[in-house]
Fold MFS general substrate transporter.
Amino acid sequence: MAFLRKRSLKVSDDERTTAAELTLRQSIYPLCLVTILFFLWGFSYGLLDTLNKHFQNTLHINRARSSGLQAAYFGAYPLASLGHANWILRHYGYRAVFIWGLCLYGLGALIAWPCLLHRSFGGFCAAIFIIGNGLGSLETAANPYITVCGPPRYAEMRINISQAFNGVGTVIAPVLGSYVFFLKTGEDEKALKNVQWVYLAIAIFVFLLAGVFYFSTIPEITDADMAFQAEETHANVEVGPFHKQYRLFHAAFAQFCYTGAQVAIAGYFINYVTETRPNTSSSLAAKFLAGAQASFAMGRFTGVGFMKFIRPRWVFLAYLTMCIVFVAPSITQRGNTGMSMLYITLFFESICFPTIVALGMRGLGKHTKRGSGWIVAGVSGGACVPPLLGAVADLHNSTAKAMGVPLAFFIAAWSYALCVNFVPSYRDPADKFSTTKVGLEESTGSVDDVESGPRSGVMEKEHEGGEVQHVNSSREVVGS
């Protein structure tokens, strides 16, 4: 019974723990475990981009209809991030959401099996919708967890390093797809069977990983911990009610626009290359996509290097600006030149998603968990922009001309990059977090203290009339 109590997934958000002051050394194990999740959804996302073209070939559907995969996948994100996953996160904790998301991911992978067997595109989209709910749940918890687990000043660097393994997953998936999905003419049935085995292997792996999370002891970061961090950095003198967190909602809008553009480009990359580059098969184009995703992954590692010496907000502005500069020529250029423009665009896309998450959550304090759901919900742009690009491509019979669609959405997301650099109410919270010393020195507790109860420096003091106030023994009354 003691063992089961220690494995409880219920955590009180009113108690402050040592998790708010974790050092780099103390946060290594939980960060490594959660980083595996980033690889998982990078791999799943990479498979989706490859399957988009594969189903066009094998099921004889047009570009707009094949984008139903992206619509089902990313359309599930707001349902998870603003609905069931966010509710579990606020009422139970991060570990509970990790387990829940992995179980949904595994369930969707199992359902994909009979759908592929019977060549049901609609059924497979339903399975992808369940997988999207699972991955949306994981993103709802993993992105804020990586951001807040460890010294606040390194948040942008931490999340970009973890997201780099997402990029590694997106590289491996197209390479696998080029050998497994795109076979010789007449071997469509064999290709579909290969896809079935891939999804069965995914299901087994994620169910095992859910067990690892259940038995692992990782720190739970509460709302009280986040309020403490915001207070220590003076990033939010007055947090205010949730509906007045305008910086958060602007970040969510930017995430919607940016993610939609990123997903649209990757989802139709194979179409673009086969149409504009002479004598290029779908299999070869899938290998080129793997190379583009490698450029994406490399961009994240180099972005982290720049963030070591330059403020993350400036790196973010430079990278997003370059996305606009280089995607524009892909509309008119063809062959290797046009493809090279997309390669460079993917390189500069690399740090944008995680940096929007990190900057958008700055100074939210007690609203951190709820706010993370809104930023992750912005991923639903991946369900809206690809069908729009597909419709424009079908209308003009040209994927290259349709690249004007992601260009427009990049420009819309650029508004947030400008504000976070030049508007004081956006810029100041980001800068104050990047200079704080919280987590740079070892706290008096250990990671195990997070599981067992509140920080020893916080106690309850009862006043006349039965009112209870939480008192920080090293400072002053912090709440009642």
